[in-house]
Specification:
By secondary structure, the chain is an alpha+beta fold. It is built from eleven helices and four strands. The chain has a four-stranded antiparallel beta sheet with strand order 1-2-3-4, covered by helices on one side.
Length: 448
């Protein structure tokens, strides 16, 4: 046998440590890293500040890139992708030393040893980690869509408040005109001072309500700022002046089909099932032994080598059975959670679809009938009051009706928009525009 220098093994180990080695990536790992890189290329870390003329879509985009909940979910997904590499890799080799002493050092044997998991174990663990990374991606996607919805849920009530303040101010101007009219009628003896006092009382009540609404705007602005992921010490963001209402009809059947296929919460639960199935396979392969091998070289008496080998003995059958039972129980739980999620999604779809239809019927009634008639009723009441044919209470009642119908219109429009947003974002799973998510035909989103 050709003589090998006794420090060969030590030199080889040192070279391995210095240069490093790379394992063979699984197909699932390659796909996960490709998807992670695709999302990372769309992720904007240094967002520019929102301008005063920012649109609602730009504000939503800022929120999904800046909200800490989304950032945390994205980091969890990245960590899960890296975990695939860790579980499919071989254990680190070990550099060993063995020495014998009598009066002096009589034997020194450096060596190199490695552990090798049983057949199929690493691939099974990699499959489980890949399924877990898919679940983390869908949790990230759900966080993006939830953040977009939370932003809209904070914006539209703020818009409703501003619209209500606008209605109140117009109504205050109208009441001032009515007070002037009552004074004129009183001066010519066609009305009493009581009408003037009634107009003043109505103005004072509405002014008090307006002041309270203006004060509540601070709370809503704080909620809007939080939805953007901005910290308390940061400057207040601008609020888009113009809302983006969507008046087109929704296709209920298409939305429900999208929800069953694209909803990220359901996709995450489906990935949990795949992870549980892979865990069963891991538990099944734990019955296979692991191996170890090594080689030591005698420094003082070359060439003299000590080969070493070992094998684990998976003899604890109760532990193996418990691991298998736990994995099977995890599969049953994951399957039940998916079924529960599908049921809950169907209920949410029915509820929000009804809210949209109800709001649309309300808007149709208000715009087509009630608001025009309320305006006409107020004009007729004012004209009749000038000619002393009705008392001032009729004018006030007509004014109140118009005010209430105007507020009802804003409320119905806001309610409809929020219900549509929940249907499209949270239920159907349609991502917000330019969101840093994968297309629906990527491996992460199609491997269900």
């Amino acid at each position: 046998m050709k003589r090998i220098h006794p420090l060969f093994l030590s030199g080889l180990a040192a070279a391995l440590v210095a240069t490093g080695c790379r394992g063979l990536a699984t197909s699932g790992e390659k796909s996960a890293r490709k998807d992670s890189a695709a999302v990372g290329s769309r992720w904007q870390t240094n967002l520019p500040a929102l301008t005063t003329n920012a649109t609602l879509r730009e504000v939503v985009y800022f929120a999904v890139q800046n909200n800490p909940q989304v950032i945390a979910a994205y980091a969890d997904w990245e960590a899960a992708v890296e975990n695939i590499t860790m579980v499919r890799s071989l254990p680190d080799p070990k550099l060993t030393f063995q020495a014998y002493f009598q009066d002096s050092l009589t034997s020194l044997m450096p060596g190199l040893a490695a552990d090798v998991p049983g057949p199929g174990k690493r691939s099974a663990r990699a499959a489980a980690a890949t399924a877990d990374s898919q679940a983390k991606y869908f949790q990230f996607a759900a966080a993006v869509q939830q953040t977009a919805f939370d932003l809209l849920r904070s914006y539209y009530p703020l818009h409703f408040l501003d619209a209500k303040l606008g209605v109140n101010r117009r109504t205050l101007a109208l009441l001032a005109e009515l007070e002037t009219l009552a004074r004129a009628q009183n001066e010519v003896g066609q009305a009493t001072l009581q009408d003037v006092l009634k107009a003043q009382i109505e103005q004072q009540k509405l002014q008090q309500e307006t002041t309270n609404l203006e004060d509540s705007r601070k709370v809503m602005r704080a909620q809007f700022k939080a939805a953007l992921g901005l910290r308390p010490g940061q400057s207040d963001p601008p609020v888009p002046a113009e809302p983006e209402f969507t008046d087109g009809k929704l296709d209920g059947e298409q939305l429900l089909a999208e929800a069953e296929k694209e909803n990220p919460r359901l996709q995450a639960l489906a990935a949990d099932i795949r992870s549980a199935e892979a865990s069963i396979e891991v538990a099944r392969k734990e019955r296979r032994p692991d191996f170890s091998a090594g080689l030591q070289a005698e420094v003082y008496e070359p060439p003299f080598y000590w080969p070493q080998a070992g094998i684990s003995l998976p003899i604890w059958r109760d532990k193996l059975a418990a691991e298998r039972a736990a994995a099977e129980a995890g599969l049953r739980a994951a399957t039940a959670r998916l079924t529960a999620g599908q049921i809950a999604l169907a209920v949410e779809f029915a509820e929000q679809s009804y809210v949209v239809r109800e709001a649309e019927r309300e808007l149709s009634l208000l715009r087509g009938s009630l608001l025009p008639r309320a305006r006409q009723s107020l004009e007729l009441a004012r004209a009749a009051y000038r000619s002393s044919r009705v008392d001032f209470l009729n004018v006030i009642d007509a004014e109140r009706s118009l005010l209430n119908f105007q507020l009802d219109e804003i409320a119905a429009q806001t309610e409809r928009e929020l219900a549509r947003a929940e249907l499209t974002l949270l239920i159907a799973g349609r991502p917000p525009e330019h969101a840093p998510l994968l297309p629906t035909n990527s491996p992460e989103t199609t491997n269900r």
